[in-house]
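Troubleshooting log. The previous run stalled partway through. Resubmitting the same two chains, unchanged.
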Amino acid sequence: MATIERATTFSAPGQVDSPVELKSRYENFIGGHWVAPVKGAYSANLTPATGEPFTEVPRSTPEDVELALDAAHVAKDPWAEASTTERSRVLNKVADAIEEHVEMLAVAESWENGKPVRETLAADIPLAADHFRYFASVIRGEEGVISEIDKDTIAYHFKEPLGVVGQIIPFNFPILMAAWKLAPALAAGNCSVLKPASPTPWSILKLMELIEGIVPEGVVNVVNGPGAEIGKALATNKRIAKIAFTGETVTGRLIMQYAAQNIIPSTTELGGKSPNIFFADVMEADDDFFDKAIEGLVLYAFNKGEVCTCPSRALIEESIYEPFMERCLERIGRIRQGHPLDKSTMLGAQVSTAQIEKIESYVEIGKQEGAELLIGGERAHLGGELEGGYYFQPTVFKGDNEMRIFQEEIFGPVLAVTTFKDEADALRIANDTLYGLGAGVWTRDTSKAYRMGRAIKAGRVWTNCYHLYPAHAAFGGYKVSGVGRENHKMMLDHYTQTKCLLVSYDQKAMGFF
Amino acid sequence: MEADPAPKVVATDAALAEIRRLRAGHGPLMFFQSGGCCDGSSPMCFPDGELLLGPNDLLLGEIDGCPFYIDAEQYERWNRPSLVLDVASGAGSGLSLEGVDGRHFTLVSPPLGERGSRREPAGRT
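Second attempt completed without errors. Output:
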């Protein structure tokens, strides 16, 4: 058995038999070239799997952001003028490149982020390719509208690109979140200066290596460095026409404030505290659907809980609480935690020391608040080379929605469970939160599912499913979870502006003067 | 809101040292407690005045002269705890100043809210 398991573990990037080549140092990707940071400073990039550094990336300064903006502005007009056929062709070639290197990118992203490689192989990387394909498709179906104001006066409406946009992406899906933002921006004819999250600066550079001969120079530029320096330098810059951000609420506020100061649009996705609601009828039969519902609850541990829509509040109808949780805890107890590059690993390492310390802190808060710890609650010590990694046991608390662990996103494999009496009670608890990004509803009663889905104040309500992120299904927040809808062609509206040509075919003057 | 003589936010010696260090480079500072995903529960440190304040922001107190704010509803939902600011190694991913030097402000695993749980549900929507 042990030999079989070992055979399913990928070798770490840089090792001879790894699918990922590794250099000791990477540069910024600017204007289609690898450009050293102006001030020559670099930072070590750690893998959460072991806590050890494995490469270096630029610790850029505002001067590097200016270089990237220079390159993007050179590329801007030719890219905007490229036909949608041509832009579509380029995006499809990006998708091809990703699909031809799924394993390489999956291992790179897993090593950098700590997430299980089975997730990156099956979800992150294939979805990234598909998002490029989706926007390659829908951009060709876009059309302006013509309005006949009167018989001689016509309003032609064109969708024009914004120009150069700034995009700041989070650490939890370093490649997929870049795809979510780059694909619509590029399809719509914009050029991007993209800043990866500080804990995950590198795997996106492996994607840039793949596409450097595909995407015209300067259309995509990647600059790494501290948010306080280059994130701010990008978001406040007069040379961007839009800023997009995924992260937490206060940076989201700053981003929107900077956008207001330059009078440009912004889109933000700021996370949630998503409820996952299980009605009693899920247990009417011990069938495939019930099995799916159990998995639906355990999905709080997907990507170690580092998901903006983590279903981190489970609301369970009180009549089934005991037997349902028994089955769920049995499933949670079988979660296999281990080396992120082992294909059988279900739960990997948290992204950073900052994150795992925060998780520990919230577990302590949960205990102090009087929540009942049902399973987990501590760091996982996996021994050997993994002993220095950032592993946390899958954890479940039972408590009530008034507790802090029900109100703030822990961003770890920590579930807060409570019960409800009836449909109205479930809805009240579900909406008793600052946030409104995701929600889940599980029931065999489709009318009830519909009522709940429409009444929950969240942008995405998964119904009898969870954590699916297909292209062509809009994703974004209600309430303080942000502004904008990604993953759908409507995102093209966030990356274009409307030009109206109002044309008179009448030969006669209006008669005023 | 009832008067409360106990300070609502204090700092460890390490956090105070970090504040002094940052202030030497950036001038007066402000803190704002974040929420949401990624670095959601981190206290963010900016040059004073960097984040525009609104009527729904609550001044919890001052740390060595630096104002510390939180969204007022968020504070209610946290059950009005007293906060202890600390600093740890490892950068976060936001725009907080200390991240440039590979550190992040954090909250020490703290005591309970005033009564252990949130009150006055009628005041919320």
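Takeaways: Confidence is low (pLDDT under 50) at residues 1-6 of chain A. Residues 294 and 327 of chain A are 7 Å apart (CA to CA).
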